[in-house]
Amino acid sequence: MRRSPLHAPxxxxxxxxxxGLPPPKDVKEDGQQNQAALEIDTxxxxxxxxxxxxxxxxRTRQSQQESLDVERARYEAGVDTAFFVIQYQAYLSxxxxxxxxxxxxxxxxxxxxxxxxxxxxxxxxxxxxDAYRGRVSSPPATPGTAPHN
Length: 149
Fold this sequence. Notes:
Low-confidence stretches: 1-8
Largest sheet: none
Order of helices and strands: HHHH
Distance between the termini: 66 Å
């Protein structure tokens, strides 16, 4: 008669629970650790992507500003019409809007990483004691004007 691995005897002194499987508590802890590591990895990827998008939006906005400056100079020299100046103003407005959205996405990703690693309150200088008491002894940190390197 052939025995399945689930019924195989365990070695002496090896306490691995019923049928050679780890105790459920260990499995649950491993699952929680894996979930936490996955959350941190995902948050890091989101932060890197958000930073890249923000940097690209800044470069695009700068390029659109330069293009608008050139078009204004061409208009003042009588080479172009006001239509092109207005068109480049619209392009610059869109680039500015994209930059603002990208900056917001970056700060959301940074907050997500802070939450995943458990430092969100520290990042914003929020005391857990103050939070527990319902008081604010010092104002929390506010996001800067640009993402930090």
